[in-house]
Design brief:
alpha+beta; Alpha-Beta Plaits; four-stranded antiparallel beta sheet; two-stranded antiparallel sheet; 6 strands; 25% strand; globular
Length: 125
């Protein structure tokens, strides 16, 4: 059973994810943070959103509202959120639901200081 598109306002949540991404772009954020979706060997799909804030209570409440059959695994590390599901559509819809319910927001992150090598390494791999 998949999350119904009507729950998030779009076919698979792409529009919600795109709007959130566009709203984050401020000339700095998009150079160091963003969203990635990769396949895993579990098998499954992992969406990673970096440079965001998380409303912990709302995260738990939102995850509990999803049917157990599609409930993704969500982990949070500082300003990075990982969403894993065995189904790509469920993964994207779950991310869109988190964004649509304002569980994930913009984390105000200061630009690096001149000469901060750790940020440059992160940016350029």
């Amino acid at each position: 059973m998949s999350v119904k598109p009507s729950m998030i306002g779009g076919d698979c949540g792409i529009e919600v994810i795109q709007r959130w991404y566009d709203s984050q772009c401020d000339g700095y954020w998009e150079n160091f943070y963003g969203i990635s979706v990769v396949s895993t060997d579990n098998p499954g799909w992992l969406a990673t959103l970096s440079g965001c804030s998380v409303q912990g209570d709302l995260l738990s409440e939102t995850m509990q509202s999803l049917p157990v059959s599609v409930r993704p695994t969500v982990s949070v590390e500082d300003t990075t959120v990982h969403v894993f599901s065995t189904n790509l559509n469920d993964c994207l819809q779950s991310v869109a639901m988190l964004l649509g319910k304002r569980v994930l927001g913009h984390k105000k992150i200061s630009p690096p200081r001149q000469g901060d090598d750790s940020i440059q390494k992160k940016r350029h791999g």
